[in-house]
Amino acid sequence: MNPPYSLGIIGAGMYGKVLMRAFQTDPRARLTWVCSASQATTQEAAKAFNVPHATLDYREILADPTVDAVVIATPPYLHARILEDALAARKHVLVEKPLAAMPDDASRMVAAVASAPNLVVLEASCRHTRLQPKFAFIRDLIRSGKLGTVYHIHHHHLVRTTFIEWNRNGAWAMDKKLAGGGPFIDWGVYDLSFHLGLLDDVPKLRSLRSFTTNGLRDMSRLTPFSDIEQHGAAWMEFDTGLTYYYERGAGVHGETACETRLYGTKGGLRFEYPSWNTRTVEFFHDDGEPRREVLEVDVSGAPDDNVALAQHFLDCLDRKVEPMMTVARAARHLDILFRILAPENFHAPGA
């Protein structure tokens, strides 16, 4: 298989269009198919991105022997079946985040990928996180030993608005059965991708306490149904001794920056990890006196986060690199988030 790679886009909503635009920046990609549930949306996307083939049935894409890979950008409750069918058709896959809306679906996806070891499967929660310069900068600081042992992570981000207020076509994301959850699922996959990735995904969850609540705002003027959490927090303890305080909210009567604090035995960091926020990292340490340094991350030449994701997938197809976010790793992160939303179902390993 050689570039240009023939790609089929399954799901032409907000993120489907974002990824189509990103892939069109790279000559290694050729958009040949687009599919969504709506005839109007499908035809609109085909025209806007000059895609020659359009369908309402993704199986038509999988039946085309000239298609090398597919992008699954549907709502997450549809991901498992489409991924299984795509791998059975021997297609490489980029699957949008969150991986799944239900724990059983995530398990099915892990099993499907394990049964197709020669196919590239990338999950998209490395977007905004492991593929941007800030992640490598902070990870390298940790690996240098300047922080000593990282023993605590503190992260919070609270906003007053909800998903549907900036994507009016995303009513499905307000239904827990379809989306898996609210801000803990929508943004939690990014939060854990960044924070646990800094520690090479070594820590394993041992115990967890959490709360979640909704009903803080009346959403009936925006959507006929909403049962996702609007605010919550968790205290997590890991097998390495790491502790992690984690708070997320959308639709909260208050707000905080998307701020992370890392505490190590020799030094600490404070930063906002999204690439569009400040590029500075505060480094706190002691050389006989308490010190605070403001470090600047070099982002010159860094592509847009979505372009970086598309490029990384194409690099994986080129066999230059391994997927930055595997389905198995994404499923482990998602499992933590599902447990935050339903802590009564959590049983520590060996308990």
Topology readout:
Layout (H helix, E strand, L loop, with lengths): L4 E6 L3 H10 L5 E7 L3 H10 L4 E3 L2 H6 L5 E4 L6 H10 L3 E4 L7 H12 L6 E3 L9 H11 L6 E10 L16 H4 L3 H4 L1 H11 L6 E9 L17 E8 L4 E8 L5 E9 L2 E5 L8 E7 L3 E7 L8 H13 L9 H15 L10
Parallel strand pairs: 1-2, 1-4, 2-3, 4-5, 5-6, 7-10
Antiparallel strand pairs: 7-11, 8-9, 9-10, 11-12, 12-13, 13-14
Helix pairs in contact: 1-10, 4-5, 5-11, 9-11
Please give a handful of descriptors for the protein shown.
11 helices; 14 strands; Dihydrodipicolinate Reductase, domain 2; 351 residues; 6-stranded parallel beta sheet; Rossmann fold; 8-stranded mixed beta sheet
In short:
With 351 residues, the chain is an alpha/beta fold. Helices cover 30% and strands 26% of the residues. It folds into two domains: 5-126 and 305-326, NAD(P)-binding Rossmann-like Domain (Rossmann fold); 133-303 and 334-345, Dihydrodipicolinate Reductase, domain 2 (2-Layer Sandwich).
